Amino acid sequence: MRSYTNMILARLMVCSWICFLNSYSNQNIKQKIAEELTSRVEELLSIRVSVLTELRVLERNRSVVIKQISERNNELEKLKTQIIKRAAELERLQLHIKQAALAQKEAKDQVGSLVEPPLDILPKQAQKAIFTNGNCSFKIS
């Protein structure tokens, strides 16, 4: 609709230029100037149409990019909240591990004083040899 009205306006401008040129006496010059003006106006109109078309395409692309940026920002915020939750959970688990290690150390200290290390268990033949070599007449059966 706009391009149609623009073309009408351009043609009116050309007609007004032609009327202006009619005041000159040489018909040949008037005709050439009118043709030149007409071609320039039509060229400008076609340039305008192509620029408007490209502008529409760029505006569509801009809206798509803005939408993508908005989606990425939303994802970023979700990831930030997940990182905060994971960091808190990690701190809690690290504290729990430290407490468990401390409790284990305390348990070892308490149990260590009550329990002695196990005795070496040797086979019967080795035990007999130890007692006979040690000048003991004591036999284990």
Walkthrough of the structure:
The protein is mostly helical and 141 residues long. The protein has one domain (2-106). The protein has 3 helices and no strands. It has helices spanning 2-21, 27-114, 124-133. The relative contact order is 0.04. Residues 137-141 have low confidence and may be disordered.
Cα(first) to Cα(last) distance is 118 Å
Question: What ranges have pLDDT less than 50 throughout 5 or more consecutive residues?
Answer: 137-141
Shape from CA axes?
A: rod-shaped
Number of helical stretches of at least 4 residues:
3
Mean pLDDT: 79
Q: What is the tally of beta strands?
A: 0
| Rg, Cα atoms, Å | 50 Å
Q: What's the main sheet like?
A: none
Tally of domains: 1
Strand content: under 5%
* Run of helices and strands: HHH
Oligomeric state: single chain
Determine the structural class based on helices, strands and strand pairing.
mainly alpha
| Secondary structure: helix percent | over 70%
